[in-house]
Structures
1.
Amino acid sequence: MKLLIANRGEIVRRIVKSCSKLNIIPCGVYSEADKDSLYIKFCNDALNIGGFAASDSYLRMDKIVNAAKHLGCDLVHPGYGFLAENAEFSELCKKEGLIFVGPSPGVLNISADKLRAKKVASRVATVLEGKEASNEEEALKVANDIGYPVMLKAAKGGGGRGLRIANSANDISKVFDSSKNESMISFGSDLLFIEKYLEHPRHIEVQILGDNSTIIHLGERECSVQRRHQKLIEETPSPALTKNMRERITDTALAIMKEMKYDNAGTVEFLFKDGSFYFMEVNSRIQVEHPITEEVTGIDIVEQQLNIAAGAGLTIKQDDVKSKGHAIECRINAEHPLSFIPFAGKVKSFIPPPEEMGVRIDSALSSGYEIPSFYDSLIAKLICYGESRIHAIERMRRSLSMFRISGIPSTIPFHVSALNDIRFIEGNYNTSFVDELKPYSSKDGELASAILCQLPRKIKFLENKGYSNEEAWMKSRFSLSNFDNLTNSRWN
């Protein structure tokens, strides 16, 4: 059996790993901008589908289907983003005799449509009022009806694409076009959804797996550390929830997905404030942050996706899901750590921390790689597991200090600062976390980055002197303490 992975970057490498477990032959596609990308080498075969922009390559249904046929593939896995939640693409695959690794077209017509999903969810959950808008006049009318502040976001996709906040009619006029354009670039549709905006909530989501007969959950994830509504740090379990709250949110998520007769992997997203949960949307695909759920449950989510799509169904039951410990994911982006402005360019060196026990790196980056300007800025995901939350935080701090990327800026200094912020350490934060940080100056930021870059060398030097990795790390704590003092005085 052969599978076409209709995506790019780290998610391709991730899917390939699960394919090897199931003796599925992985194939790929790449755009003209990605022709030298590392992820291609992990595919058994790959086809150049041309173009540079996503609209000319990864969003072209005809090119993806033709590639699958040319390579003799039986299945198509869309990954996340691009065509992953596109009901039309799912239907086209079915029509062309290809198995779409994701929800069925009927389910996607509901779950990937924000208005329809909200109507279905409202039968069993509390929802925030909202409607679709195809032009600015409609957006202004919806906002006037439901009251400000409101949130504009892409109606045909998730991931925070197209998301803007408006506190007045004047704000809508300012952000409508940019929201619409971002939606079109990301999902091939410029239809927007206007929703009542809940200020300073926590963002909590529940991982779901379903086949034609069973729907189960794999627990929740906390995703409240965000910048411009893009997730930066995720953790599981959420430090905000009591046992009773956890049962409430997972039961509600299951009820919503049962109403949709959901099949394959998906995530139900909620806003949480003052003890109440509000349904936000369903992400009908594998999530960027799925690794932390895999770390605490030991369940390969992509493997389950492939089993469900191939007709074998779920190989686990709800009673088999036993979460243990704590996991955190930091999204490493090719962005300036102070301004978060994305950067394209050549990576001079890429030296991730060792993937020892409790440390996982999902990336398709390599030294010498030229980061294109056409796609998302995510270049690596660092996932750390610990027996407790404090253990996971300490392991993440250590791993971040050993991560070395040069040639382009990255968000690593930001992540170290965030993990040393007292609000994060205590688990007392919400979606305003990043906005309320007091940024250190560019000079201090560069100094902090320099300290971080030198730590791996110092640890390696001590290891060559005969110290164990653990001993070398402990002796290097002085440098990290200096960084802690610097970032704490500026960010807290």
Note: The chain has three domains: 2-101, 129-196, 202-487.
2.
Amino acid sequence: MNKYIPVIGLEVHVELKTKSKMFCGCSADYFGAEPNTHTCPVCLGLPGALPVPNEVAIDWCRKIGLALNCELLKSSKFDRKNYFYPDLAKGYQISQYDKPFCLKGSITLGSGKVIGITRVHMEEDTAKLAHQSGIQNSNVKSQNYSLVDFNRSGVPLVEIVTEPDFDNAQDVVDYLKKLQQIVRYLGVSNADMEKGDMRLEPNISLRRVGETGLPKYKVEVKNINSFSFVAKAIEFEIKRQTEILDKGQVPAQETRGWNETKNATVSQRSKEDAQDYRYFPEPDIPEISILADQIDQMRSELSELPHEKVKKFEGWAVKKADARILAETKEMAEFFESTVEHARKHEVLPQDVANYIVNHKVDITTVLPTHIIEEIKGKKVGMISDESELEKIAKEVISENPGFVEAYKKGKLTVIQALVGAVMKKTLGKADASKAKTILEKLLNPEVS
């Protein structure tokens, strides 16, 4: 029996795909570019350079907040988060502290569990460090070193912080997949974890069964870039912290990293509290306000989200499992909607369309909705659904397959599929398979009918 219950909260950083950076005009499309070519005095933190907020990035941050059922603050501000690290040229990061753009939201998992969203705030990304080893020159034989690429510095970054509402790794992964799907639907980020567009940071601690309130410590695992790694990191931390607590000790409050090679978390530094960052209002950027009618307009312009698409498709009598597959991406959902629009003109049901797309794993980039309708209608042309005709063919099949009939009557009910197959073969695939099965069952069980 488990003595401890995990207490897990998440911080997720999502890079926005705006054309320019958060506080300057440099291109934000930095991935794969020559190092330090997308820079200017602002993102290099040079003295006297002044930040100018990216209005599109702020709107997109608020969009994410609305999609996560957050309240948008009428007045927000930027703050300086002070700390020293080589990837932070200014010695501080422009972020948000007590007046972020979005507060108090929620997201509902597939299981029905509701996860609270503490805040959705805007900040600038840092530069990227490349750690190398083995440098050689005439003076030094071998030495470890780090290179700094400022192309990423200043790219718009949205941080989404949850309440500590998770108690297992599976719910964490479900949440992250749903969050990734939402930001992609909104069109504000590619959320490609391999490129660093979406970075995952769980905060993990344990409390004894029966206890309430939060534990006196928490361990943050930084910058994980895959769903499987975040699950492994959580499981590892639960085991590691359990062993420490079983010894009567308290795990250190610290920041750790995930080591893919060792399949383990490793200590990086002691974890800072808010006061360690000495937050204060960014003096070069005034407070940013939004009016109630602007919020209403932004909410009305929000595109349908994945769960709304699923609900709509179910309203069209599409099976829930198929509806979820069809709503997986915004592109697939819109393709399905477009195809259904054509289908209705030709008396083809939405479920028929769903069956075709799901079963054929349709590549929506190469197939037109009209082609799918033609395919579906073509298969239905010449279909034998007349019951008297099907009954005649079924009787012939029963007469020609005494072995299958005997097996069926002895209780091997699965052979009915073989008899249905024989009907389909006789009709060159034009029989209504469902009706054929029903007729065969009636003929083989006359006492039931």
Note: The first helix runs from residue 55 to 67.
3.
Amino acid sequence: MRYEIAQNFPKDMIFGEPGPLISLYQPTHRSFPENKQGPIVFKNLLRKLESSLAQRPDGDSSEAIMKPLYEIRDDSDFWMHTLDGIAVFASQNRCVVYLLQTPVKEYAVVAERFHIKPLIRVFQFTEEYQLLGLSRENFSIYQGNRFGLEELPLPQDAPRTMKEVLGSELSAPYLSHGSYGGAGGTTMYHGHGDVKQEIDKDTEKYFRYVDTFVFENYSKSAKLPLIPVALKEYHSDFRKISNNPYLYEKGIHKSVDGMDPDELLERTRAIIDEIHSERIRKATESFAKAEAGSMGSSDRSRIVRAAFEGRVETLLIEADRNVPGKIDFETGKVESGDIDHPQFDDILDDLAELVLSNNGTVLILDQEAMPTDTGVAAIYRY
């Protein structure tokens, strides 16, 4: 097989591969019969690439760079296992394919650099998180991203249930008073006064154990947002005693045992989307402050110069804005040109690569989320 499947972005080949370079994006489908359209759309995009490559004086390179794409075109097994989109990057040396769980718009271009804006957008909000499924009786830990999650195994010798944790310290009232409501459900107690106080003490001891255990064994090393999943009444009790700095301020108010995996993922996505929206809001607010203090700009020429000098800390780019041309990474010079010509692509895309190559942060935003009308905004390091 002449192509490889990539999981992480940016891949090592993104920076420094000699041109010509091919970038292809295409929406795909997971199931039959919609996925039968994949090869047809792909063939049409290949024709556009062939036409662009034909304009290059070194036409001999076309066969080598297109060979793995022809293999993808004819690989029926590949098209039977696509997800929601693909991104294909090809040079004369390598071909890398991303199977995306997010739809992308059709785009195919030959240029001196890879077109990476759509891929940045796909991967910019795929940070992982952890979930804490909590009840008075037991707990569980999950980890995932917006596309899926899985339960993490606990050490075999680790106490998990309240009875295992408290052992002989478990109060007599807790043991003697009946409970019902199902796994993870609300526990109903018959008794008043001292009985309830003893039960509350047991719950507090157990929650303190869970909080310490989760931090020491998971949060401390992963450093990921921890989203609590529990019945509403448990949230405030747990937050009162928690010392975990990664515990997220919002959670899911339902028993983890009362949801199937799809519902749990859907509810988690809603919270993750809030985290992402907050990140965008903070980035735009930071830009406004930076611009007011002459440490930010929306002027494209100034931003290109600052990026070339390695001074851009954060770059915001409008997702659907293209500025045909290229940036010379050796001189910082900007040149306008026809996007269908194999030496040109999108200046904003080159700008994104330039910032990433200098360890800056790039966010691709919808037009309505952009703090400027120029399609670009930058926060400077100095």
Note: The longest helix spans residues 261-292.
